[in-house]
Amino acid sequence: MSQVIIKNCGSYNPDVIKKRLEAGMELIGGWARFVSPGMRVLLKVNLIGPKHPDTAAVTHSEFVRALVQILKERGCVVWIGDISGGSIAGVAPTAQSLVVSGLAKVAKEEGAIIKNFDKEGVVEVTPASGRIDRMYLARPLFEADLIINLPKLKTHSAGIYTGAVKNLFGCIPGLRKAEYHRLAPDPKDLGQTIADIHQAVKIGLHIMDGITAMQGEGPTAGEVYHAGKILISTDPLALDTVAAAMLGMEVEDIPILESARERQLGESDLAKIEIAGDFDAPPLLPNFKLPRRFRSSRKSNHAVLIKMIDFLKTRPRIKLKLCKNCNMCVESCPVHAIDPESKKIDYNTCIECMCCHELCLHNAVELKRDNLAADIFTRLYRGTYR
Ligand code: SF4
Ligand code: SF4
Description:
The protein has 386 residues and is α/β, with parallel strands linked by helices. The chain is 31% helix and 20% strand. The chain has helices spanning 14-26, 61-73, 94-100, 103-110, 140-143, 176-183, 187-200, 236-246, 255-262, 303-314, 328-332, 355-359, 372-382; strands spanning 2-8, 40-45, 77-82, 113-116, 122-125, 135-138, 146-150, 152-156, 160-162, 205-215, 223-233, 273-277, 316-318, 365-367. Strands 1, 2, 3, 4, 7, 8, 9, 10, 11 and 12 form a ten-stranded mixed sheet that branches. A hairpin with a 3-residue loop joins strand 8 and strand 9. Helix 1 packs across helix 2 (61-73), helix 2 runs parallel beside helix 4 (103-110) and helix 7 packs across helix 9. The radius of gyration is 20 Å and the shape is globular. Bound molecules: iron/sulfur cluster (2 copies). One iron/sulfur cluster binds next to helix 11.
């Protein structure tokens, strides 16, 4: 039976986090079940972009510090790795992100080794789904003795939620992520690609930083929510199923998790997940704001109409007053839908991946406001909002 440990933790003080982690790990067999002296342990963080840890967009550097200390006390060699999304002049901002997020400082102070996935080379793998012939993943994922996935608890403007399953999308280095978005414009299809990564890479443990979470229009432009939780599991889908329940959602609401369920990445039936630690059921996080698109992910007999309405409700638009002309969005758009000069978006080409919204460092890409007519239609055809 899959287990998910939930521990309360209201602080980013590394000593407090270490105590909570040690207590939580005891419930799934202790650290000795996973690590031994000399092992090379890769901490796969969420380093989506050059964001300060207090924005809740990235795995918090003090959370990572606590883990580095725990692992070094057990004689492990610790690597911290990821890649940031997007690019300017063909270069992803990973190096800048490592500094802004505080991870470079933590690595230096604690004696960990940074693995910038942009610079470490790739390994070619054959995706289990067969949707594409081959896939290239960052080399350190195949050189580490143990990978610990450290997702952040966040909403996602396109995918509704991002957690343990989605965090592995960051294993794809370079500009190939945009290509995978183009090949899989539907979040469920993207979920199949992410499932391919889970099946190609062996992750030993998933520990979610849910001390602060991101609510609203995540994964970078939402607001901070103080959730005060750490979740631990060996099963990424079980962890996400429990985390989603904490936010008031089900697996059916989150296309990427539906794909993970189809691909049997883990357990998605709450009744079959053993929850332990400080809770025996998912604690609901009060007044947590979900992304606008959440309403569109519920099953409906009017799916086509709802899709049309929701497209009207949530398409991205660039606010020229805030735009700094860096062209990150232009270069990162998988279908080249953004005009480099005018910054106008060609909505006939746009696949609604929301990468422009996710990657703009200046919050210049807004999701177009709810449309009154769309709201009325949605109420008529969907019933009540949540
Ligand atoms: S919208 Fe944002 S990412 Fe795009 S060019 Fe302007 S500042 Fe850069
Ligand atoms: S315009 Fe934005 S949402 Fe549309 S495809 Fe390009 S990056 Fe994705």
